[in-house]
Amino acid sequence: MSELFDAVDALLASRATLPPPAERKRLRSAHGLTIDEVAGALKVRRATVSGWESGKTEPRPPERDAYARLLDKLAELYPATPAPATETAPAPDAPVPATFTGAVPAPAEPQPTEPISSAGVVSEPVKPQVPAADLVDAPAAAPRPESTTRPSTSRRPSARKAAAANTPAGGTDPRFENGPLAVVDVEDGQVLAYCVGGLVLDVPAKSLPSLVEWTLREAKLGQPKLSGPGRPADPLLVLTQAALERYGLPVTLTAEEKDAGRIPEGHKVIKQLTRAEWKLTKRGFGPWARIYRPAKGSDRQCVQLCIPSWNALDPRFWDHAAELPPAELTRVLGTYATRVMTPRGSTAVTSLELMTALHPPTHAVRDEETGALRQADTKTPGSLGSDPVDCAPPEAPNGHPVLNDLNLPRFHVRGPSEMLFEESYDWARPMTDAECTLRFLVGLDVNMAFGAGANGLTVGLGEPTHVMNPVFDPKLPGSWLVDLSHVDLNRVKAGKEWVELDGSLLPSPFTPKGDRPTGPAWYATPTVAYAQELGYDVAPTEAYVRYDNGRYLDGWYTRLRDAYLATMADIGVTTDLSPEDFLTAMDGYKSRDPELGIVITAIKATAKGGVGKLRERPRGEGWRTGERWRALDRPTWRPDIRAAVISRTRINLHRKIVKHAAFTGQYPIAVLSDCVVYAANGESPLDVLPYRDGKPLPGGFKLGVNPGLVKHEGTQTVLWGEEVRERFNAPDLNLARSIKDGTVSTADNGE
To answer: Helix H segments across 455-547?
Structure first.
């Protein structure tokens, strides 16, 4: 009889009802699942799931029943929202009616997290931010009084308004119809809020507490959530110096306040907020202050402030944005917010917040007994979860408490066999006699190199597992102790063919300084995999691997890539240009629209700074070696992910260098992070790159605006290079550092 029942069940499963293909994709995306994750769970190929979502194919038993079950569960969590029967929401740049009434939902209160104003770079990231996860994303509505709007006072023609590109997931939301942020200024005694699209609102608030109330009840500011389980972004107010004076705040911070990162707790404005029952996060009232009230039910009440004159917009990453007039500043920040996300602090902080917003650590489920929504007991698939995890000992920077149990001698310096050291290139060599006879040094720079390195990269999502004498698996993220000193760059595989090279003119792919390793060392998975790709066997003796893994950074990369390409296209640099036209379009491109030039700088800083902040070091705070520091308490403190991204970025560059050398016989003079310098007889990259009939060398360098392609970094003469090295008595001085403008400096400009 049981066999008959099984046959009946199989017959029913073969006719399991499935939603339309578009709804299948919506449900998967709403839960933050990737096609790979669904394919893995159902034990089918990625292309199979893609075919189901496009409608090209239909699932068959036994996968059909399991797929139907998955979609049914997702449909319970994310029911389809019917389209409004009457009016449609205005387009991002559409004018708002002169008067409006209705209900504005008050956002819910955040976890008391700590947005930081300082910025981070890959080599030395900065202050921490603990990302907040919120279960509620659709707060209840409350009556709102009438408010009037005035025509924009900006003199900027409408064609130069911030264009909506790569709009947030969720589309136009009537709760946030005035955009993600406003710049608050005072003109002729009247407080004005400059919004995205040229809209200017009259602000009746007389004090900072009332300004916060007005923002939540009337301003209709904010941004829809970026993923299904996530939450909307809180409204951002940018206060000009005139607004600071109006609301009783200092125009600039004293030296003591700058060191503390906040104004004193006894300041009169903070007392006003306290009397009005508003709270500040633990970081206090600083350049990126967050003001909130504890949540009541589903109501979220939180407003973030950005104060440019307190150095909220660090010029290393925002150029001269802090000096712009209100309308122009609104365009810059509004374009960034629309295409990336509403800023939550420095570009590095915002980068981590973007990762978390795209993969929220928690999600809601319906309680089977009560029918009410509650927080799930497990983390959201594909996320890092809500709790931090300790790194493996070789992944830990010096001073990390995980090293306390190793009983290392005092002042012991860990070597490559004890510490994972995946960093960007800083390598150079003396020029050969033949290179000295050439006239120019041409620098090539990889666009958004760290973003491109993150694209498609499988990284660990959970805790490491210690394994002895493992068999290397190039698909398994982790840290591996292995001897790669036998890899000989004089003879390597480039694709399927073995090629003969001059290894003395190449940097080693395994060390940041380009030195050939001398024994066992710790490497991230992409580095060890590249040794195999070059044609050599690898035999690790130890590893820390992460079986819980996924392509966590794919959405983050895609968001930043689309923002970058859309903004570059606005300036006239598009993806369809020929090499010659691309070089012409890139010549002085930021000067065509300086405000969008600022946005481009900020987007690139977001990509680079987020990678650096994954391994943030302690910043004062009375920290001592062996103690925990603040950044360790957030799930996005992940030095293993940082190492994997940097490893893959460095390997991607080395692969191109090898392809170029094998085909042209040209070798780099210097490499610095994502910049490579070659000697040539002409000043243009086209005098270096082997284009044939407009087509580049497959697998080599290619000119273009896309991340991973290259642009012209700068050209100097060979005589300049030799003179600089002679002046500093440094035959190995890295000329890539100065190739852009010829100025010899070790300063980091944040690029």
So the answer is: 525-533
